[in-house]
Structure formats: structure tokens, C-alpha cells
Amino acid sequence: MKKALLPLALSALFALPAHAADADSLDTLRLTTLNLIDALVDTGVLTREKADELIKAAETKAAKTAARAKKDSTVRVQYVPESVKNEIREQLKQEVLAQARTEGWATPNAIPEWTERIKIEGDLRVRYQSDRLADGNSPIGAFAPGAVGNPAATNDDYPLATRFPAGVDLDGNGFPNGNVADSVSRMRLRARLGVLAKITDGVSAGMRFTTGNTNDRVSTNQTLGSNFNKYSFLVDRAYIKFDPVEWASVSGGRMPNPWFATDLVWDEDLNFDGIAVNLRNVSPTATMRPFATAGWFPLRADNPPNADKQWLAGAQIGTEYDLSSYTTLRVGLAKYRYGRIEARTDTAYDAINGPLQNYGRYAYAPSLRSRGNTLVQTNSPIDSTEAPIYGLASKFEPVVLTATADLAHFDPVHVLLSAEYVKNTGFDRDDILRRTGVNLTDGKDTAYHLRVMVGMPSVSLSSDWQVFAAYKYIGSDALVDGFTDSDFGLGGTNLKGFVLGGSYGLYRNTALGVRWYSARNIQTMTYDPTAISGQRYEVDTLMMDMNVRF
């Protein structure tokens, strides 16, 4: 309904001619409308000045209508059914209340001003997940350096690096990411609650809390089955955003992913700590909208003491382009660089006193890594007693090309295409040999992702739907395995395979979804010298989700 419904309804009522038996009913309707306005004034929803203004405008319009009617010799008898009268009364009431809330001309300060600056949003997801590991998967970890049965193995013994660390409890719920044999079925829950606040016209802030645990930065799931114990609610986002001009913004804190990307490079649940600058619609044309993003994010701040700080920096440029009224193309080119994350032989070890204060500074911590990256030992050559300390063999400086296309020829049904290609320009076998002494004979530095989706752009209303299919290929050292999609192959790199899925809107903001992942390894996963080319890892994952948003 339009805001003018009330005065138009009044005008129509005043202008209706009273004829025969219908005169009484029209007078009753006029009186009811006027009484409704008086009641709204008495309750403070409508001011007397606003009410008088509406009635006067209606009378003026009615007089003009009556004057025109005199020139028309045709006699018209207006009949208004009782159901229509009731509908008009209810519409008038709802329109006045809505207009009062929107324009603020009801009782002053009846609705607190701060409520207009705060937005609360959230979602709940209940998931059934079944991870089915192939019967023929190779046992993992038995030949890894430091593992039971081979504690003295070193990098010199086996040129292949450990890509599948055993026994790491990645998801914090008792399921080690080194598991290759035991299929698992479980119920999982995700709950998120966010608050967005507009401080001033150019300053806003956001906070979000979520389930999950601090051991897994790329998942917010909570596995059910804790003897009815309570779950943790963690700070997932906390940031301030400045918009000094319409085309630029600066964000600082723990913020949403600022990059235009698919889940090939960044898991969809990953948030970023640091600062990001975004430029949008710079020198736009009618069909082209350029954008640019730059950011710096600390990964490790002085831990262990006196260790080199680790960080991530990135820059991205791109544009959104309307090829036609039905086709929109978006392209982005990004370059990321991880600082001081690569392994080196650690020299902070004394033959007499043992490890010094910052020994282990080049470690790729088990709490961060997933699986797939090439790892090497960073222990000092004179260290014969400490447990193996693994670090990343390669440097990571990936270049990422991302493209999406939205084809709306069959609107409201869309066809969405996306593609992403990654090349790790920091992968250099000679550099790895120079830094670590390991002559790496395998390892891949590229990754790509292809996806097609058909359906509504988003599933938010009843009967909305989507179906999609995707193919992923993630070389062992194309990306840092700790930040990639945690669902495909149960996370990490050195994986290839398919993803199929879809979702259907049951009600408004209520959807049922299903996904099926099928992944297998590209190369061998461990130091096992007896299975350099024969190691196998395959896993199929089924997810069934019920999602609600508010």
C-alpha cells in the first residue's frame, strides 16, 4: 500500500454520493473512519494537527469531485459490501501505524532512535553429516618421521614430505584429521548471531558470535553428543568500518572476508584479523563498475617469544561489467603473499643447553594446518632428542584469477557460472633445497575450480530453489591448507573431485539443503618409501541441512 492510502480513502468516502438505502451505510462508514482517526489521536499515534490536515485535504478533494459530478447527468449508486468496509478499516489502521513508524510523526520518541541504527541478524543450521572413507585407503602415519616404529627417520631418508599428519584433532570434537579408515556419521549444529550498528553516516561497527571451537578457524560447527552439556559461543567478528566517501571504505578488526573469491582459496566460514581498504565503483560507467581491495593481516604475533612475526598481505583489482541487460560478468585478479611462513632449518639450539627460547619459530603449528601441504622438519642438525618440528616447505605467494557470470535470460531462474585459477608463484624447488636441504621431487603449485548453478540467486522465499555442480583440483602446494574449504575431502589440499548439491525454500527464510562431496588424493601423502606412487585416500561426504535465518 502506498502512503497516500489514508487521505485517498477519506476523499473517496466524502465524495461518495448517498443514494436510497445505501446512504445510511455510507454515513456509517464515514463516521467510522472519522472515529478511527479520533482514536488514533487519543492514543498518541496521530497528532491532531496531522489528523485535521488529512480531513481538510479529503474534504477539499470531495468538493471538487462533487462539482464535477453535477455536470454528469448519469446517476451512479455506489455500493460498498461489508467485507470491503472491514478491509478498508484494517488497511487504514495498518497504513497509519506504518507511516507513523517510518516518518516519526507519531508521539515524539515513542520509538527509541537507537533502534533505527541497530540491525540484528542470525541463522541456525542443523546438519546430518556422513563421511564415508574408502575401504582401500592406505594407512597413514606409520612411516612419517617421529611416528611409532620409525622415530629416527629424517628428511634425508625420504625425499617426499609429510602431507598427511596423523592424529591431529582438527575439528575439536575427537575426530583426527589423520583419519583415513573410520567412516563417521554425526549430527552437527551451527548457530550465529550478529549485530550491525550505524554509529554515524560514515562509521559503522559489527559483531558476530558463533558456535565452534578455537582449534578450527574454518568451521563453526558443533558436533552434537556431549551428554547434554552446553556449547561455547565465540567471537567470530568484531570490526569497525569507516566510509569517508561513497566509493571507499576502511575496515579494521576481525572482519568478514574482504576478497572477491570462491571457497577454493578461502573457506566460507573464515574471517580475517587485520585491516582492509576497499574502493568500489571507481570512475564507473553505465555498464562497468571497477573495484579494488588491499589488506594486511597478522597471522602470528610474537609466539613463541622473539619469533618472527607471520602475516598475510594481499591486493585485488577487478570490475563488474554488464554485457547486456541479461548478462553480468565479474572478474577479479588478486595477489597474496604470506610473510615468514615458510620453513627454515632452526639454529636456535645449543649442544649443551638444548633448545633456546625461540626454538620452533619456523613451525607450521598442528592447530593451524589441515592436510596436503608439503612439510619438512625444521629441527637443528644437532638436535637428536626433540620431537620433530614441521614447517612449510614452500613459500606461498599465490596469484588468483576469479570470474563469475550471472545469466538472467530466464528470470527469475538464473544460471550462475564461476571459475577460479590459482598459481603459487612462491613454489620453487631450488629455494626449498637451499632453505631446508630437501630435494623435493613432487608437489604441485596450481589449483582450479569450476562451478555451475541453476535456480534463484538466493533461496529466501517459499518454493525458491537452486541446484549446482562443481569440480575442484587443489595441488599440494598451491594454497595454504589451513584456510581452504574444510568440507571438500574433509579439508586441505592435494585433492581433486566433484561437489553436487541443491537447496529448496520450504518457507520464508527456511530452506532444506543437500550436498555430496567426492574427493581423492592427487599425489602420495606421506614419507612412506614403499608407496611413493601407490598411496590412496578417498572420501565421500553427504550433508543434509535445515537452515533458518532471521
Describe the protein's architecture and organization.
With 550 residues, this protein is α+β, with helices and mostly antiparallel strands. The protein has two domains: 5-112, no CATH class; 120-549, Porin, CATH 2.40.160. The protein contains five helices and 21 strands. The protein has helices at residues 5-15, 22-42, 48-70, 82-103, 429-436; strands at residues 118-133, 184-200, 203-210, 222-223, 234-245, 248-255, 272-280, 288-300, 310-324, 327-339, 349-350, 354-355, 375-377, 390-392, 398-410, 413-424, 446-455, 465-474, 495-507, 510-521, 538-549. The strands form three sheets. Strands 1-2-3-5-6-7-8-9-10-15-16-17-18-19-20-21 form a 16-stranded antiparallel barrel. A two-stranded antiparallel sheet has the order 11-12. A hairpin with a 2-residue loop joins strand 5 (234-245) and strand 6. Helix 1 (5-15) crosses helix 3 and helix 2 (22-42) packs parallel to helix 4. The longest helix has 23 residues, at 48-70. The two termini are 24 Å apart. Residues 1-5, 141-161 and 166-176 have low confidence and may be disordered.
* Named CATH topology of the largest domain: Porin
Task: Average the pLDDT over all residues and give the rounded result.
Answer: 82
Given the helix and strand composition, which structural class is it?
A: alpha+beta
Distance N terminus to C terminus? 24 Å
CATH uppermost class of the largest domain: Mainly Beta
Low-confidence stretches: 1-5, 141-161, 166-176
Q: Measured on Cα atoms, how large is the radius of gyration?
A: 32 Å
Strand and helix order: HHHHEEEEEEEEEEEEEEEEHEEEEE
Q: How many alpha or pi helices?
A: 5
